[in-house]
Design a protein that fits this description.
Radius of gyration: 16 Å
Strand order of the largest sheet: 2-1-12-7-6
Strand content: 35-45%
Helix content: 10-25%
Distance between the termini: 17 Å
Number of domains: 1
Order of helices and strands: EHHEEHEEEEEEEEE
Shape: globular
Largest sheet: 5 strands, antiparallel
Length: 176
């Protein structure tokens, strides 16, 4: 008998919208899906992109193991989870402790995180003026401060977010 656990497959999704009045961001933060937003605001959609993979960070993996085996760890739940974006293109390394150059951390949209089967999904909306700049790196942290435990880090150029735009960031982690 063999035990095969493949820890984790990740998928990052960035969806970009024109949002000069902030209405789309407001609805997204309430938990509306991309499909619902595209139906309500079809003329505001800019683009969507999906990127797979990332590096698990040692600090986050250790915190995850504490959640499984002991007490005193902080969850990446609706109260504590924040998706973060930064502008550094420094290579991913498991010993890092989060973003290299922080643009912003944003808490969870309504109804997130969600768990379906073996996948957990976090989603945050970066409204107009929030996280403005070059999106080069991504993470999920269990606080919006530098003291939080970051579960992972992905480095890839997703473009530059302008002030009148709303971008959503979603992370799916599947354990199998």
């Amino acid at each position: 008998m063999e035990d095969h656990i493949k820890l984790w497959d990740t998928k990052w999704t960035v969806v970009k919208y024109k949002d000069p009045d902030g209405k789309l961001a407001e609805m997204s933060r309430k938990g509306l899906s991309t499909e619902e937003l595209n139906t309500i605001f079809p003329d505001r959609f800019i683009e969507a992109s999906v990127v797979e993979g990332n590096v698990g960070l040692n600090e986050g993996i250790n915190e995850l193991l504490k959640l499984i085996a002991t007490t005193g760890a902080v969850k990446w739940d609706s109260t504590n989870a924040y998706l973060g974006v930064g502008s550094s293109s420094a290579a991913e390394n498991p010993t890092q402790t989060g973003l290299t150059t922080v643009l912003n951390y944003v808490g969870m949209d309504g109804t997130y995180p969600q768990i379906t089967a073996q996948t957990v999904t976090w989603k945050s909306t970066f409204g107009a003026g929030v996280g403005t700049g070059s999106w080069q790196e991504f993470t999920v942290s269990n606080t919006n401060l530098d003291t939080g435990k970051n579960l992972n880090r992905k480095v890839i150029d997703k473009g530059t977010k302008a002030a009148g735009e709303t971008w959503t960031l979603q992370l799916d982690i599947t354990v199998s």
